[in-house]
Specification:
The protein contains 14 helices and 14 strands. The protein is α/β, with parallel strands linked by helices. The strands form 2 sheets. It has an 8-stranded mixed beta sheet, sandwiched between helices. Helix 2 runs parallel beside helix 3 and helix 7 packs across helix 12.
């Protein structure tokens, strides 16, 4: 099968949605299929590239940062991608177009479908759904609500990685046919034989709704003989650094680390506890990473977080500093509980292997391409 993948961000650019896109594309190639990706050009990255068998075409666009993208910057991708995507579609006669994000990418997929009659589907990732992210794209979603509903309705298939995000989509666009296919993950990427240390890890793009401020507020009041590490960059980072200045337990900020960075891998492998107190999530890859690395997880009961961890983590209320502090204090003092959660995580994460998730997508692709 020949597949054209559209996403405005693709590693090393972007966050969780970019990582999911890349991993799916690479596993489709491993399964014997051909995958081309049209994405944004960023700085000195090559215009054309091949990564693990995936052909990548980076089109003219404007983007200031690798870790996040504004609405006007997204619009430049739609403009810059049209010529390249159409040329590739005509040359290669793809079986299907797979767009990631309703906004900004599905308008390009819809336009290509009209030009070539190639069917397309859209995978949502959270920030492209109104109400999912209370701090980002609020004005954009208000302005384009009619267009958003039309785009959600007209895609030949709509995929959500979690049931919680599916319900949010249905709230805005009832009666839409939505398939739930979880994000996948390669558990083998971490060495679980590495000795765990007294480390607490937080990792994500740093936005206010991620709730890291409540975790730091909880930690700063405790005198722990543990290390606290925060990985990520974003508009709320400086606020977190200020909050952590007088912490009784020192907090180290590492900034943004690429998923292939050895330092990030070591932090996952050596950290005993992973804290992710987000107010709203779709299907966070960072939780899969933490579980796969054998961390004992504390996360919120919001969005898709409970779906990901199941009984393999401790759940807290969003924005609740005291709840985080109580769970963290308990977990720090209970080595047996940390080990139990680690064992449960190893079992739970097997449900999300990319081999299984790729087959779910291929069955959907086949169903959509039947004449």
């Amino acid at each position: 099968m020949k597949i054209l993948t559209l996403n405005y961000e693709y590693p090393p650019v972007g966050g969780g949605g970019a990582t999911v896109t890349a991993q799916l594309c690479e596993h489709l190639v491993k399964s014997g299929h051909s995958v081309d990706v049209v994405t944004m050009r960023y700085k000195d990255l090559p215009h054309e590239d091949i990564q693990n068998g995936v052909r990548i075409f980076r089109v003219p666009s404007w983007r200031r940062r690798a870790d996040r993208c504004t609405t006007p910057e997204m619009a430049t991708y739609l403009i810059g991608a049209r010529r390249t995507a159409l040329r590739l579609a005509k040359q290669n006669k793809y079986d299907i177009i797979h767009a990631h994000f309703i906004i900004p990418t599905s308008p390009l997929a819809k336009w290509l479908h009209k030009k070539t009659d190639i069917p397309y589907l859209v995978t949502c990732h959270g920030s492209d759904v109104p109400g999912h992210n209370p701090q980002r794209f609020v004005l954009m979603h208000k302005l384009i609500t009619p267009l958003w509903k039309q785009l959600a309705r007209e895609a030949k298939a709509l995929v959500s990685p979690s049931d919680s995000l599916k319900q949010l989509i249905l709230h805005h666009q009832p009666l839409t046919d939505i398939k739930v296919i979880p994000n996948g993950f390669d558990a083998a990427s971490f060495d679980t034989t590495v000795q765990k240390e007294k480390k607490i890890l937080l990792c994500s793009r740093i936005f206010e709704f991620k709730g890291f401020q409540y975790a730091i507020d909880a930690i700063k009041q405790l005198e722990l003989d543990w290390e606290v590490h925060v990985v990520g960059d974003g508009p709320y980072l400086e606020t977190l650094k200020t909050l952590a200045v007088d912490s009784k337990t020192p907090v180290t900020f590492h900034g943004w680390l690429d998923r292939d960075d050895r330092r990030l891998k070591e932090l996952y492998e050596t950290s005993s506890i992973f804290v992710f107190p987000s107010e709203m999530e779709n299907f966070p890859t960072v939780l899969l990473e933490a579980m796969s690395a054998g961390c004992a997880v504390i996360t919120s009961n919001a969005g898709g977080c409970p779906e990901v961890v199941g009984n393999a983590g401790l759940l807290i209320e969003p924005k609740n500093t005291q709840d985080i502090q109580n769970k963290l204090t308990h977990l720090v003092s209970q080595k047996e509980l940390r080990e139990e959660l680690s064992r449960k995580s190893a079992l739970k994460v097997q449900q999300y292997t990319w081999a299984a998730i790729t087959q779910q997508y291929l069955r959907l692709f086949s169903a959509l391409t039947k004449k």
